[in-house]
Task: structure prediction
Amino acid sequence: MCGIVGYIGPRDAYPILIKGLKRLEYRGYDSAGIALLNEGLNVYKCRGKVADLEAFIHDKDISGTLGMAHTRWATHGEPNDVNAHPHFSQSENLAIIHNGIIENYQTLKEELINRGHQFSSDTDTEVLIQLVEDIIENENVELEEAIRIALNQVVGAYAIVIISKDDKDTLYVARKGSPLVVGIGENEFFLASDATPIVEYTKNVVYLDDEEIAIIRRNGDFKIKTIKNKEKTPYIQKLELNLSALEKGGFDHFMLKEIYEQPKSILDSIRGRLRPNGEVILGGILDYEQKIFNARRIIIIACGTSWHAGLVGEYLIEDIARIPVEVEYASEFRYRNPVITEDDVVIAISQSGETADTLAAIEMAKSKGATILGICNVVGSSIARATHAGVYTHAGPEIGVASTKAFTAQVTILILLALRIARKKGHITQSKYHQYFHEIELIPEKIEKTLMVNKFVKEIAEKYKGARNFLYLGRGYNFPVALEGALKLKEISYIHAEGYPAAEMKHGPIALIDEEMPVVFIAPNTGTYEKVVSNIEEVKARKGKIIAIVTEGDTAVRRLADYVIEIPETEEFLTPLLATIPLQLLSYHIGVMRGCNIDQPRNLAKSVTVE
Ligand code: M6R
Result:
C-alpha cells in the first residue's frame, strides 16, 4: 500500500529513488512521483507506473542529492496526476509523501479551509502537510516541532517523509502503523517502506517504531524522537537479504520464479527445525511452548492467502495435536467482540507482516490477555514485532502480488508446530511421529517433482483460458487448497472462481454446472477420496469439464476426468503442499495467455496496510 523511498548524501538522488520505486512498485502502482531538492524544490508526478514517471521526467531537471519518491495505491482520491504524491504545502515550501490513512482528515481539512487554506487534491496527505505549514505560521515554531504537533493531532496510520525548500540538508521522517526503514551508509542515508531498495547500498538499518520521528541530516546526524518529544537511541540491525532474491533470475515473472523456488523455500523453512536427533524445534517460540501446550484453544488470524494457510492449520492442529482451533478473518475478528481469555493462544499469519487488519486484531487480542504468536515472512516487520514471539517462514522475499511460496512456507511451519505439540502432548505414537518426520523431509523433493507438470498444466490453461467461471472443489485438508486455487485464478486472470468443500456442491453450486464450466477437483488418494470421486461423478453427470489433481497412478478419477494432473504420493496432511503447485501454475498460465499483468494485478497491492 504505497511505497516510499528517500535519500540524502553525496550521490545524485534520482537514480537511487527511481530504482527504489521499482523495487517497491509491488506495494501500489496507480501513480508515482518524486521530489528533488536542488536550487529549488522540484516535484514531478503522474498517473501510471514508475516507467510512466520516468518517461514524464526524461527532459526535466533531475539534479539534487536529497530527494524522496512515492508509488501509490489510491485510498483517498482517484488515481490521477493531482492526487499522486508528493504533495506541496500551500506555499510550496514543503513537500510530503505518505503511506497510510489520516482518518480525521475531513475535520482537519474543514478547520484549515476556515483558516484560509486551499487544497488542490482530494487526498488526506495534503491535509497533513497543510496542517504542518499552518502550525509553523500560527505557532511560530520550527519545522521539526510543527511536525511533532501535527502528528499529535492526526488519527490514523502514516509513514511520511517531509522535505523543506529552506533546508537543503534535512529529511524528516515519521511512522505510525505503516513501515519505514532507515538505511545507514557512509555519510548517507536511505529510506524505504521495506529494505529491498536499501540492501544494495548498506546492510545497516534501523526500523522506526510507531510514533517515532527521525531527523536525518546531511552531516551524518541521525536523531530519533517520539512524538511526545522523548529522544530514543537508534537500534541498528544487520540486513540478511540477498540482492539476487530481488531479481527475476531469468524467469518472465516473479510469480513463476517464486512458484519454482518452493523446493528451496520449504527446505529453508524446515532447515534447522527438523533436528538430526528427530526433534522438531521452533526456536522462536520455545519460551512460549508451555502456553501452547496448555492452551484452551488456538485462534488463527490472517487475511487472504495467509487465512487459507490458517485453515490448513486448523485441520492440522486439531487432527494431529488435538487442540481446538478457530480460524478468523482478521478484519472480522477485530470488530466482533470475540470471547478471548488468557488461556487462548492467538497465531497471526502474515507474509508481509504489515497487514493492517491482522495488526489491529493482534492488538485487540493482546489487550484481552491472550498470548500472541506470529508466523511471518518479512523479518523485523510490524507483526513480527507486535507479537510475543514467533517463527519466521524464511521463504525469502515474495515480490509477485499473488502469494505462492509464502503460502506453502506458512503451511510448512504449521505442520512443524502441529507435530511438535502432538509429540510433546503424547498424542502421536513414536512410529507415526518418525514416519511423519521423515515424510516432511521428503517434501522439497516431491515439490520438485510436482513442478514437472508445468508443461501439461500449460496445455490445460490453453484449453480453458476463455472460461468465464471456474469451480474449485476439495475436502478436508484440501478444502483450503480449493479456496486458494480459486483466489489465485481470480487475482491473476480476473476470471470469476469459487472454492467450495466438494460435498457442499450439492447444496447450491451444482446449479452452475453445465458443459461450459471447468471444475477443478483436488482428489489425492487420502482421507475422503471415495467421497470426492462420487462428487466428480455428479459433475460428470451434468457435463461439467473436470480437471483433477490426483495421486500418481490413480485410475478411478482418470476414468471420469477430462484432465488429471498427478502429484507424488504423500501423507494426507502434506497433500496441500503438493496439490497447491499445479493450481498456482494453472492460474499463472491462464493469466499470461489472457495478457494480464501477472506480478501487478489490477487494483491489488502486495501488503494491505489500510483497513
Ligand atoms: O502479507 P499478508 O500475508 O498478511 O497478506 C494477506 C493478503 O493480503 C494476501 O495473502 C493476499 O490475499 C494475496 N494477494 C494473495 O495472493
Summary: The chain has 19 helices and 25 strands. The pocket of 5-amino-5-deoxy-1-O-phosphono-D-mannitol is lined by residues 303-306, 350-352, 355, 358, 401-403, 491, 604, 607-608 (CB under 6 Å). The first strand starts at residue 3 and ends at 8. The chain has three domains: 3-243, 247-428, 451-599.
